[in-house]
Amino acid sequence: MKKAILILVLSLLWCNPSYSGSWGEGELQLTKSSADYFIKYLKGSIDRKPGDFYVTVDGTNVQYWLCPYGLCERGDDVQNIQRCEIRTGKKCKKFAFRRQVRWNNGINPRTRKGSTFKSKWSDAEIYAKLTELGFYKNNFSTNTTTGTTKADKDIVSKLKELKKLYDDGALTLEEFERAKEKLLN
């Protein structure tokens, strides 16, 4: 009986609805200022490190929280999204927790190794990683009347196909990275 109650309590804690639907999905292009704020967030401060990072779904505004070293816990996503939306007047979603980007755009692997940024990286390295993950200077959301070429759309679709092959286990991480690098260069 005690086991059943313990399992019930743990499952209720595990399935906390406040975290559901908070991670962003779909194409997202960060503006230069949003990318700059992400860099500032990643670098933290003397006594604080990255906590939660939220972005408007159009990539133009951000809201983030830093937390004291040793006391960093996941914030209340529902409340933080509401704060972001009130401050920006736009729909917000969670982009990153600590230094790992979890936004699902079809390119970002959302793994610890593939989506984690280091605070010691240079700004150029962070911009490059954001671009590689499909969040910066990729012109996804523009059309031919605003300058996106067919080649840009082909690269995006090929990257998504590669990601699907990797997710399905048809490619190893090494093969995926090599193919992705070949496409981006």
Provide a short characterization of the protein structure.
This protein is α+β, with helices and mostly antiparallel strands and 185 residues long. The chain has helices at 2-14, 32-43, 77-88, 112-115, 123-132, 150-167, 173-184, and strands at residues 48-56, 62-68, 92-97, 100-101. The protein has a domain at 15-141.
What this model shows, in words?
The protein is α+β, with helices and mostly antiparallel strands and 185 residues long. The protein is built from 7 helices and 4 strands, in the order ααββαββαααα. It has a 4-stranded antiparallel sheet with strand order 2-1-3-4. Helix 6 packs antiparallel against helix 7. The longest helix has 18 residues, at 150-167. The N and C termini lie far apart (60 Å).
Number of helices: 7
The general outline is: globular
Number of strands: 4
The ordered H/E elements are HHEEHEEHHHH
Proportion in β-strands? 5-15%
Q: What's the overall average pLDDT, rounded?
A: 82
Rg over alpha carbons: 18 Å
C-alpha termini separation: 60 Å
